[in-house]
Amino acid sequence: QLQLVESGGGSVQSGGTLRLSCGLTPGYDLKYYVIGWFRQAPGKEREGVTYIIASDGRTWYADSVKGRFSISKDDAKNSAYLQMNDLKPEDTGTYYCAADIVGSRYSGTYNLNANGMDYWGKGTLVTVSA
Prior knowledge:
Elements lengths: L3 E4 L2 E4 L4 E7 L8 E8 L6 E7 L5 E3 L7 E6 L4 E6 L8 E9 L17 E2 L3 E6 L1
Parallel strand pairs: 2-11
Antiparallel strand pairs: 1-3, 3-8, 4-5, 4-9, 5-6, 7-8, 9-10, 9-11
């Protein structure tokens, strides 16, 4: 079964940067999945931050992170990444990588929804201090 392993969380000051990684289990091809990043702050609901459709590289970002976060992938490493710049205290939370099986020729409009994801990582904590 596919497993997702996140890494890269940590504690930074406001304005700092972090890069999160999401690795797929060897033998599972990234191109069949949408990889999404979600986050959950203490006492709040999980929210979708960004996604990438691995087969064609299309991306989407929540308004709260647009211009500061960037999602990317490395097919050779079977991994996706979340580059987070200009971090703010409100970015604090546990960040989860998730995968949705869509096939290698997905062409429709994709709507990121936690209930629609097939696989989840265990999460990595990001703490941004003022």
